[in-house]
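Anyone else keep sequences and structure tokens together like this?

Example one:
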Amino acid sequence: MKKTIFILPLIAATFAISGCNKSNNVKDTDLMHHHFVLVKANGQELASDKYVELEFGENMTITGKMCNLFSGKVTLNDNVIKGAGLAMTKMACPDRELGELDAVIEDLIVKGAKIELTKDQLILKNEDNELTYKLRELM
């Protein structure tokens, strides 16, 4: 009897900690109407004077800025975000790092990127690139 009394709370605590049946799948509603700023690209911290952003709107439209402005429509399936391409202004970029980020975001969207979302951080990554964003709401 004493063993049963000890084991039952232990089992209950194990299920509570493990989040029994908790899904880590990101849903489009988790992203929509949120604004993120890039803090790290391929492991390198971004200088604070570079304002690089990504925003998710209605129907999974994205808008943002690396060196150039971009927008597109993406889908989210099994924690992978993907789109047919991005509409992007193609102005010459005096900042080489930001110019390279234009190609990185386009690569992530076209090839597809695994997405990880926490309370205040968004990570987009594939076999070639990884971008880490911080949540920064406009309001």
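And example two:
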Amino acid sequence: MTEGFSSTSLSDPRETAADKMQRNNFSQLPVCNENDDVVGIVTDADLMRVHDDEKLISEIQYHHLIELTVDTSRRLVEEILDHGHPAVLVVDDNTPVGIITRADLLKSYSASG
């Protein structure tokens, strides 16, 4: 799980989100509304389809982000990611604490093998 993750805002331009991804070596970012609630996730592929750096994230197609609690089983996380979701948001008492991606699972397999 990636803890203390970075996010982008619905009002951020494409360029800002792309810069955050590049600086942090991320392939996706949670998207937050004006209240800092996570409303979805935007991927590098989403941003690559848009050629206008000033286009706002709210105008770019982003994905629903599934929320799971910290005690969710690894098996369920694997099933969700296997069904095409780019990531899951991990919450503790309704507060986001991290994100799990396929890359995180791959790292954990390598560490345990």
